[in-house]
Each structure stands twice: as C-alpha cells, then as structure tokens.
Amino acid sequence: MMQNFNITRRRMIAITATALGSAFVSGTRFARADEAVRWHGSALGAQVSMEIHHPNRAEAERLVKSCLLDVRGLEQQFSLYRTDSAICELNRTGILVSPGPDMVALLRAALSFADLTDGAFDPTVQPLWRLHADHFSSAHPDPDGPSREMLAEALSRVGRSGLRVGTDRIALAHRGAAITLNGIAQGYATDRVVEKLRAAGFSTTLVDMGEIRTIGPRPEGGPWRVGLADPDRPGATTQAIDLVDRAVATTAGAGFRFDPAGRFTHLFDPKTGLSPALYRTVSVIAPTATEADALSTAFSLMAIPQVANIVAVRPNVQARIIDSNGASIVCGT
After folding, report:
1. What's the pLDDT score for residue 43?
2. Are residues 211 and 326 in the same domain?
C-alpha cells in the first residue's frame, strides 16, 4: 500500500507579550478574545498558531500580519512541500541563480554546523530521504530497507562539499544531489520572528514553532517554564526547563518513521545512510533557535563524548539527552 511521507508533526507559534496567554483558537483568520490577537493556519509544512497581547490592538494586528508575511516568505524559500519554492528549484535543477539573502544565510549557517559537528549535521541528506520514501512506499517493501547497492548510490550524492553557496548562485556539484533544511529551518524562522518582535520593543515574549525561543522573563516575572515532549507518549513530557532569553529544540527519531518497527527514521547518518537509534530524545538549549535546532539534529547521531566536546566550546549551550534505556544525560550547564 502506498503511504504518505509528508511530515505532519503539529507545530505552533505562540507569541505572548505584556500578558500571560496560553489559549489557541481554530480558524484561518484573526479572532478577538480579551486583548489577544490570535491567528491559526499553516506554514513550513505544519499547522501554526500565533497569539500576541498588546495595548494597541491595531498595532498588534499589524505586527502579527508582518510576522506572518515574513514566515510566508521563508516558506517560499525553504519548504519541500511547495513545488515552487527555491529549495525545490535547486533540487530539481542543481542550481539556484540570484538566491534570496535568507537562503544564503541559512545555507551558510547549515554548512557551519556541518563543519562544527564533523558532518553529523548535513543538509545534503535529502537523497537518503527520497530513497527510503520510494522504498517503503512500494507495494511489498523489504523490511530490511533498501539494498546495499541503492544505499551506496544514494550516499554518493550526499556530502556537504558538494554544496556550493555564493551570494550570486547556489549549486549542487553532483547529479541527483538534493538538500533539506528540515533540521534547521524552523529554528531560523523562529529567530526571524523573535528579531522582529525585539525590534518592535517587546521584552516579554515566547515564540514556539516546534523550536522555542524566549525574550526576557514571563510577564509576572520569573522564567518561562517549558515542557520537553515525550515522543513515546503523545501529550506527555520528559522534563521541564526554565528559559529566559534562550531557545530550545528537541529531536527524536520517533518523530517520523518510515517503517512500523521504527528502524528507519528521518534521522540519517550522512556517513552510513542508516538511522541509528542512539537516544530517545535530544534537546538542546542555546542562545538562538537556529543553533538549538541544528545541534539537536546533529547530537542525535553523535556519541556523548563528542556532544560534550562541542557543548564545552559553545557559549550558553546545554544538551539534555534521554538515552535508549531512559536515563537522563546532561552536557553543559
């Protein structure tokens, strides 16, 4: 039976300023409730919501619309779910002429994290996704996954050295190569929204697009309390953390599985093409959501000593890991 391999993880944007707000409303238009402006719709391949409190309602609605326009603009560049996006054009043709500044900035950030993690984070793993999606959507897929020959062929198209990023053009050096920004784009979008709100003078804000970033403390004082999702128990959390002017992202192989047994997930080791199940979840706390997003992806594929070495040289970064036995490991302070 054919299967749909679009990621459907629910992601939300919750922006709260000057007053505490936690409720979300359905629909695709603005809704009025107390002093809050709320919006619900979709972006970057997921369901998103926005809630903002502001003493000037007209200014609040203007700011929400402006944030949404920014997110839509990023979606037009980064989304693999839109055939007319810049990333899809690059993957189809192998070249992107006159790329937008956000595409250049995000790809350069992705390559810097690839270098930092010795290739554990690699935006060029999309051929592995295609291979596994095609294999497991076939009529009678081998439960052991694609053949060694097909895996080797896909791996020959993977490698950050084959991605050339310039301000005038972006190119893929190998025929059949392709990129994905699913392990970093949500964090980048979160940071863009936070930057706009900070520039508008907001000092008490929580932004949640699956990757969370805060500005300042809660309206009544004290840190924002954030629960880290348990991938094995929908609606449950593994632990709670406090955030002030920091971001957090969580990655888990259970977030998407190609096969019922969960041996093949969305987390691909760029060196082997396999999906190692080292940990149940990896959460990273960092100054920006971009960094937290990329490192939580990379750390899911790395041994604890490697994770500890990177955390030791990254200011204000902490990794919280639940291993395959359920034990909690913390790297950094």
Report:
1. 67
2. no
